[in-house]
Task: inverse folding
């Protein structure tokens, strides 16, 4: 697995471009750059999930396993951070009109997810995996799993709902909306802890409102970081907070959340000075949802046929089969879901105009 990681890192390193002295990349939070960064992490998620079907006791996997242990749930922090940033940016540009459209986004996300749940039911039937009726029904809400990845979708559904409520209350006062979203997120984290949900289902959620907060302060941040000296100071502060919280991560959810937040922010700081350009990473990042949600299907099927005895073949086949599934899913399912969502949005907009 370490060799696969090295090959991937070589592709990553070959596409970096440094800004000149005392200059910075103005598009470091652009859709293209954030998509590329997400491409890195969706590949790391795929590797992480693949290890759950493999026996990686060989010495040549030790380095990768150390990286996996270090990152933990950190492989999803950019998804949450950039989502929060993107939604906040859209609210700043479009105002209440965008906020009113959030329920449609929730509907589309859940519908896309439910199509995938049906696919997993079929896979489970084929592989003779037993499913309880209650678990199966709850799986369509994303609360339970049928061997599919579900917790991230649960988090996003909740976070989108919180955003809708928060900004419906705050209206034009966006900073109040960010504060309310943050408070709602903190509340749900402690609620999940109270009902004994697994830690991985909630311990990165704070990165979403943190991304919203950064969108709010970004103009000030860009004015502050005006030369390399200030940039180095920001890097040192970011590293110090991330390192301190990592060392004290066992102290509780507060330190874990702090580490996740500044791990995400470290990529903001990184890309301000260093641009990453890679067609492969950009493609992976533009298909994050489908790659993330479908990758366990080939892994389950390949494991069923014993291919996971050969970790390299298993990982490569899982990767390429996932890409094919993602292409088909985005080409057909996503288009249909987007069409239904857009139709609903037009219908509601028409009703508002008539009223």
Result:
């Amino acid at each position: 697995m370490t060799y696969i990681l090295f090959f991937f890192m070589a592709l990553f390193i070959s596409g970096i471009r440094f800004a000149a002295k005392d200059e910075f990349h103005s598009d470091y939070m652009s859709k293209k750059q954030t998509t590329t960064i997400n491409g890195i992490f969706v590949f790391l998620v795929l590797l992480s999930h693949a290890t759950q079907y493999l026996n990686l006791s060989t010495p040549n996997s030790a380095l990768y396993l150390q990286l996996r242990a270090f990152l933990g749930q950190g492989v999803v922090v950019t998804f949450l951070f950039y989502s929060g940033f993107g939604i906040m940016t859209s609210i700043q540009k479009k105002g209440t009109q965008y906020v009113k459209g959030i329920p449609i986004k929730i509907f589309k996300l859940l519908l896309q997810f439910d199509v995938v749940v049906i696919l997993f039911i079929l896979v489970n039937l084929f592989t003779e995996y037993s499913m309880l009726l209650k678990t199966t029904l709850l799986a369509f809400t994303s609360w339970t799993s049928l061997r599919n990845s579900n917790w991230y979708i649960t988090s996003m559904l909740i976070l989108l709902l919180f955003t809708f409520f928060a900004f419906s209350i705050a209206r034009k006062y966006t900073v109040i909306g960010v504060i309310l979203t943050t408070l709602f997120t903190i509340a749900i984290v402690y609620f999940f802890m109270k009902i004994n949900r697994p830690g991985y289902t909630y311990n990165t959620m704070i990165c979403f409102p943190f991304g919203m907060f950064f969108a709010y302060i970004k103009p000030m941040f860009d004015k502050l970081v005006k030369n390399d000296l200030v940039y180095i100071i920001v890097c040192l502060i970011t590293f110090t907070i991330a390192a301190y919280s990592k060392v004290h991560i066992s102290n509780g959810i507060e330190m874990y959340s702090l580490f996740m937040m500044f791990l995400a922010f470290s990529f903001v700081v990184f890309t301000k000075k260093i641009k990453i350009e890679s067609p492969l990473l950009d493609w992976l990042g533009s298909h994050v949802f489908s790659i993330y949600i479908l990758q366990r299907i080939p892994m389950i099927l390949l494991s069923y046929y014993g291919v996971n005895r050969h970790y390299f073949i298993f990982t490569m086949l899982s990767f390429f089969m996932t890409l094919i599934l993602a292409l088909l899913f985005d080409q057909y399912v996503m288009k249909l879901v987007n069409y239904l969502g857009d139709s609903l949005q037009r219908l509601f907009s028409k009703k508002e105009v008539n009223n």
Observations:
- The chain has a mean pLDDT of 91.
- The radius of gyration is 21 Å.
- The first strand starts at residue 16 and ends at 18.
- The beta strands are 16-18, 274-276.
